[in-house]
Amino acid sequence: MEELKYVGKTxxxxxxxxxxxxxxxxxxxxxxxxxLYAQCVRSPYAHAKIISVxxxxxxxxxxxxxxxxxxxxxNRAGLYLEDRYFMAKPGDTAxxxxxxxxxxxxxxxEIAEAACKLIKVEYEELPAVTNALEGMKPGAPIxxxxxxxxxxxxIFLPEAGTNISHxxxxxxxxxxxxxxxxxxxxxHSFYVPHVQHVPLEPHACMARYDADGKLTVWSCxxxxxxxxxxxxxxxxxxxxxxxVVSPAVGGGFGSKAGTTLEGIxxxxxKHCQGRPVKLVYTREDEFVNAYVRQxxxxxxxxAVQKDGKILGVQNRFVWDGGAYTEYGVNITKAGGxxxxxxxxxxxxxxxxxxxYTNHPVGGPYRGFGMCEIHFAIEQNIDMVAKAIGIxxxxxxxINGIRPGGHTGMNEQVDIAGYQECLEEVIKDIxxxxxxxxxxxxxxxxxKGIAGGWKAPSMPTNAGSSAIIRMNEDxxxxxxxxxxxxxxxxxxxxxxxxxxxxxxxxxxxxxxxxDTDYTPYEWQTVASRTTYCAGNAVKLAAxxxxxxxxxxxxxxxxxxxxxxxxxxxxxxxxxYPDRKYPISEFALGIAFPDGSGYGGPAIGVGTxxxxxxxxxxxxxxxxxxxxxxxxxxxxxxxxxxxxxETGNIRVxxxxxxxxxxxxxxxxxxxxxxxGAMVQALGTAIFEELKLKNGRVLNKSFMDYKIPxxxxxxxxSIKYVEHxxxxxxxxxxxxxxxxxxxxxxxIANAVYNAIGVRFTRMPITPDDVLRALRExxx
Amino acid sequence: MKEFDYLQPKTIAxxxxxxxxxxxxxxxxxxxxxxVIQLRENLIAPDYVIDIKHIPGLDQLAFDQENGLxxxxxxxxxxxxxxxxxxxxxxxxxxxxESIGSKQVRNRATCIGNIVNASPLCDTGTPLYAMDAVxxxxxxxxxxxxxxxxxxxxxxxxxxxxxxIVTSIRVPxxxxxxxxxxxxxxxxxxxxxxxxxxxxxxxxEYHLAFGAVAPTxxxxxxxxxxxxxxxxxxxxxxxxxxxxxxxxxPIDDVRASKAYRLDVVEVVVKKSLRAxx
Amino acid sequence: MKKxxxxxxINEELNELDVQPNRTMLSVIxxxxxxxxxxxxxxxxxxxxxxxxxxxxxxxxxLVLAPEMDGMHITTIEGIADHDGNLSPLQKAFIxxxxxxxxxxxxxxxMSATALLNENPTPTRDExxxxxxxxxxxxxxxxxxxxxxxxxxxxxKGGAN
Lengths: 776, 277, 161
Description:
Chain A has 3 domains: 16-23 and 462-608, 2-Layer Sandwich (Aldehyde Oxidoreductase, domain 4), CATH 3.30.365.10; 32-126 and 203-280, Aldehyde Oxidoreductase, domain 3; 295-458 and 614-775, Aldehyde oxidase/xanthine dehydrogenase, molybdopterin binding domain (Aldehyde Oxidoreductase, domain 4, 2-Layer Sandwich), CATH 3.30.365. Chain A starts with 15 loop residues before the first helix and ends with a helix.
């Protein structure tokens, strides 16, 4: 195969100059004429009936232009399950502490804030569900009594009359039989609390409703088309009357996927015709009123032979989905899909429950359930290994999935880089060698490993499209709605087009984020963009190339098979002196008589996964390929535990993943670095402390994420076993790179001080308590 | 933020007059790193904000062996941490100042503000308590001084009287004094103390001051008495650590548990004494 | 509420404004001067996204009240590249090292690092980490930011490594 020129090389980010000069405009930087400011009134109760909302006093305040409550919302909306109004309605209930119950638009932010204080809401407090396990029990308060009436994607199985919005079932083989055959059966339980994505840019959104009925929404969203769809359903508006623009996203990680605060400003904009209404979240809002990562209770039973072969696992995952699980039902399913971990196990029984609670709304968070389940799975496998007296490395070598092996859903995987990645990190961190001494008898060092995997959990018909246009000078405009949010889409997708067109990427300007102009992309989530949007881009570039070559045949008196794109020219393969710059074809060609033909040059690409078939609804087993691809890999971590203060320092983290084909090595490594630090944050710092439905630490004072002084030494490797249907063999990596981080750290901590932490984060307090108890 | 009037007195007398005039409706404004947050979150809603940074003479940072270190009200913790005299004669105070917040915060926050804010965990508190620092106050009615241990009276409460401004804090100079400051927090940087402590050896005494373990920073009279004038053997240090636990009253809070704080107090007392052997 | 007249330099340009005392410098910079490179990340001095340089020192603009701007010399991210758009060595280093992803925290880091390098042209890695500990980033994992700053420090040393 010819060597690639652009894919596989590090190119400078196309958006870097704007970002280092502060010139890139985020939504809150946009200032429009006659702009109004929105603010919300939010429920002080975790669960309460809304008796009445009186906005009369607020409307009298000078400078207030509109005030709304939940009455403005005729329809529920939601991505997979339509269970939420964008604002709680009078006569209905507020389902979490902080849920919006009213909002105003005013001339200044101060007036908006003052107006909100004048809105009188009468509540009747109701008993709240603040624990998912409790919420599943009979007799628990029912948060969504109308669950049976909600529109839901057919693959999900809600249990009417309960708080369970999805019960995912997987029955591969027979776990009970496996237990009978096994030498030992272990049961371990884990808990992962809520965390928040903490994008540096808080959510912001602006909407303007024009007299001709067109609604324009500017939002820092990952998926403008998903927002457009949700607003269309919620407000009964035609899609061509809604335009969603995402000018820039200051960090997403899933928090800006789907639809979050956009719904609040739409009715305000409607009442302030022609005036843009802007709503910006504070950091406190961000912790409570944007998506959060749901908490998860896990129990894993493992039937194992004494030689280390795992005969079966039984998993029970209970997800604290929060007040609305329009997104969470899919996380529950994704967790179920991957529930065996990257291991080839013949008997896998999993029950994964999505449970409504009166907690902040659980949504997609980098990993989409994988980080949570792997915290359990990867510690569990260490625990089982130690209990039967074999090494944690050996048990992974024995059971880790290999090419030709089968997933927990009995899907055959022909490519599986897991073992290679495992060996790579073990070698890289010198796992068998003791750590360098810490220099102090009270600071103990050790290493740990963990594997992980992820597949995109997207609808089987999730579509991508791209349009590429050649300018008259042979440069290009590439339009896609794969959203740049820092991960590098605006650099990587042009690299793919550049490879097809044989021009340097800087000749291709990338546009995204506007449903009126950039074509459909299902969502920028699921680590699917390089693969799905990348395929659409590749197809669009090939389409343009094809059309140009059709014209080149005429102009050059040759046949297509003998012509190629090379370094900005159409060149004859046999007679390379016969060539034209591609710009010659930008507006078509001209015949000798001067008449024109065949332009302008524009290529269209659309991509939907082939034969991506949902699993069997009853057994959860694969019928064909439910997953587009599995991205597998491993982390190793070295930690130092201060046994006097309990502080944990992560000294080193090593990563190796099977990326299929790394399109831009620097950007790949950058993603790996960010992912590992994010994992470190969840492992030792982060938790949204919830008490009776209240978030106690909704600010950076008491919700700590890693700083520059907390990072480990990084070692980043990758292997490349091509994904057959990926553009140039690429598969998605953004989320998988985070998955094994936290359990690798937890396993290392165990290896250091002999204490197993089945709950994240492992705080200094936890460490000292455990050491104290160990002594007693 | 609620509306307020912003006043810039040019003398202490003027500031004092304004305080007397407006009483509870006014707050003094210095570095702003605590106050602006309180204003933003509507924890306080004054009608008048009195900025003292335009009063000449409040930004002096001076040292001499007779009077010790004089820290003017408007001296930032960044300046305090970088000062050669502070680093030489009170390195534990420089360290404590450097441990506050981030560089950005340290360039605005003041030591006096840190003390007047009277959080139980104020990072510059324990070095000052350990050195028996003196708080200097002035109003239009005159001046007075108060030992720091009498100045902070409870959580966020001080003995400041109506119309008074803290103009400086004076830290005595004791030749040969050696000290160590320890901050234990969840995160290495930019975090509030879970506990903080300063131990200073002055002649044959060991002064022990701890923060975030009681409603105010506290000294440990019993533990100090135990080790006064004695050779610090391993066993004595062990005893001191255990006794220190009885002299603090930490609580469970969002940052840490009571049990954790007690354990760490013991650890820090022991480590500090070992370092001062 | 009486407005306060303030006179200050921002990116070396003289400005005079009447400001509301209950606004922050961050709000004046963004909403009245329309210099939106300085960002609102938390409003509470914890994240550093609003870092600007005042009289040579990095501060959080969200913790400075508008009236305090009187007499200040303020530099924001817009004042780092020159008027012809030539980037500073630090800005170039950020690009070279791919030390940015979503870009929201980037102005704050560049301001903190610029202030550091002005005060100490050859900081050690530990000094760099300590200087930027008040700037949060969620995307990058910080290492490339540190390396970009080190790159400039090395350039200042004359390339000696």
